Amino acid sequence: MADYRLLTENLKTRSFKKGDFITVPGQVQRELYFVKSGVQMAYLDTSDKTYVIDFSYFPNLCAIAESFSFQVPSKYFLTCLTDSELESLSYEDLQRLVDQSQQIERLFRRMTEAMLAGMIDLHIDLRAMTIEERYKAFCRKSPQLLHLVPHKYIASYLGIDPTNFSKLFNHVKF
Q1: Helix, strand, or coil here: 80?
Q2: pLDDT value of residue 150
Q3: Are strands 21-23 and 84-90 parallel, antiparallel or unpaired?
Q4: What residue segments make up the domains of the chain, in order of their start?
Q5: Who's near 69: CB < 8 A, 6+ residues apart?
Q6: C-alpha of 136 from chain center
Q7: Is 117 exposed, middle or buried (0-12, 13-18, 19+ CB in 10 A)?
């Protein structure tokens, strides 16, 4: 209980509007966010295409992990797709807390491991599954996003052409 209090008393509530950027390329992400409400998206913009890397929503973390963890400039954007309320914890406060509490250190290690496992699963899915299998897996994992996120972004995340995504959305039941 003392560890929980130690963590929560260091959190600060931040509100963002739809379209607000949390982090942009070249900026170091100085805060880690716990999503209370809303949907956020990490993406890379090139001259010809937008590549969606990840979505975050309650009860997940919201961050550009490598920018926050190593305090280096981000290579991509983190933006709010909907109005969002996030609890923030600065990099310095997190370092102090993990030095003070083995329980908090263990919590953050497990959250980091879960993020890594999710990234590996997506990497495998993009290479080993058909577009229909990827679509169905996404629908099972995050069905609420189908109604909150523009489909072109979900299509990008799944590595599916937007036209094919539209066909899947209209014809495939999960």
Answers
A1: strand
A2: 95
A3: unpaired
A4: 2-101
A5: 112
A6: 20
A7: exposed
CA dist., res. 166 & res. 135, Å (int): 11
How do residues 75-91 score in pLDDT, each as one tens digit? 999 999 999 999 999 99
Range scoring the smallest mean pLDDT among 32-36, 65-69, 119-123, 154-158: 119-123
**Is 80:37 a contact under the CB 8 Å cutoff?**
no
Is residue 9 within 8 A of residue 97, CB to CB? The reply is no
| 2 pLDDT above the threshold of 80 | no
Among 118, 22, 148, which residue's Cα sits nearest to residue 76? 22
155-158, Cβ contacts within 8 angstroms, sequence gap of 24 or more: 156/43, 156/49, 156/50, 156/51, 156/52, 157/52, 157/53, 157/54, 157/55, 158/126, 158/131, 158/134
Six-digit token string for 170: 């209209």
Count of beta carbons in the 10 Å neighbourhood of residue 95:
10
* 124 phi and psi angles, rounded to 5 deg: -65, -45
CATH 3.40.50.720 fits 2-101, yes or no: no
110 residue type, one letter: R
